[in-house]
């Protein structure tokens, strides 16, 4: 729960520190500008709020790792929600409005997470999880998107080290094997999710399994 807060606060702080011109730069999400990614974060924050205030009574069916749907097919760019996100982002003609909306909804999502009972059962995407597992899954979400945000912004604030380490551990659990120790946490997350291709040296350090499984496309 605490790591969710630190990861989310760091990501929102990084967005708050962006210059207006940064919003039209490419992000680490293929086909998305930084403004599209930030708009997606607003939608994510809304999802967190909705999920945490609609508890259920059913038994958990998933945890922080099995929450993730894994495929080997990158997004084709024709998902209706992705298209809507891009149109919504373009409607924020003033980047300051997008910053404000993220800070407003994002702060509320952070507060809801702070108040949530870790054992509370919540439902999302036809899954039942404890609130603790749901928020733990979002440590990976926030950390990956923080890396996406700063992919072409080298001076922007980086994700917290503990969030990177936890996100890597979760991705390794999803992959079923650790990534090479020679890879930094950032490299493991970027390569492991297909955000960049490994160099020849990095590829040489790979062994099966996770070599046969990456990149992991998370949804």
From TrEMBL:
Keywords assigned: Isomerase
Taxonomy, superkingdom: Bacteria
Domain spans labelled Mycothiol-dependent maleylpyruvate isomerase metal-binding: 5-149
Family annotation (Pfam families): MDMPI_N (PF11716)
SUPFAM superfamilies noted in UniProt: DinB/YfiT-like putative metalloenzymes
InterPro entries named among the record's database cross-references: DinB/YfiT-like (IPR034660), MDMPI_metal-binding (IPR024344)
GO molecular function terms noted in the UniProt entry: isomerase activity
Coiled-coil region(s): none
Protein name: Maleylpyruvate isomerase N-terminal domain-containing protein
Species the sequence originates in: Streptomyces nogalater
């Amino acid at each position: 729960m605490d790591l969710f807060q630190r990861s989310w606060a760091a990501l929102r702080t990084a967005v708050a520190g962006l210059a207006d011109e940064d919003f039209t730069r490419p992000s680490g999400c293929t086909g998305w500008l930084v403004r599209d990614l930030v708009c997606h974060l607003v939608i994510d924050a809304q999802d967190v709020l909705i999920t945490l205030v609609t508890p259920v009574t059913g038994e958990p069916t998933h945890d922080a790792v099995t929450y993730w749907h894994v495929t080997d097919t990158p997004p084709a760019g024709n998902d209706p929600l992705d298209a809507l996100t891009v149109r919504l982002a373009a409607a924020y003609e003033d980047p300051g409005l997008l910053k404000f909306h993220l800070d407003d909804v994002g702060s509320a999502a952070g507060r809801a997470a702070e108040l949530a009972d870790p054992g509370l059962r919540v439902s999302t995407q036809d899954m039942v999880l404890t609130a603790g597992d749901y928020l733990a899954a979002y440590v990976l979400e926030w950390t990956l998107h923080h890396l996406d945000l700063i992919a072409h912004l080298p001076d922007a604030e980086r994700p917290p080290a503990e969030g990177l380490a936890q996100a890597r551990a979760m991705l390794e659990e999803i992959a079923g094997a650790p990534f090479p120790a020679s890879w930094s946490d950032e490299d493991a997350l970027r390569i492991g999710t297909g955000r960049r291709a490994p160099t020849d040296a990095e590829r040489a350090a790979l062994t099966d399994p996770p070599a046969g499984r990456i990149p992991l496309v998370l949804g």
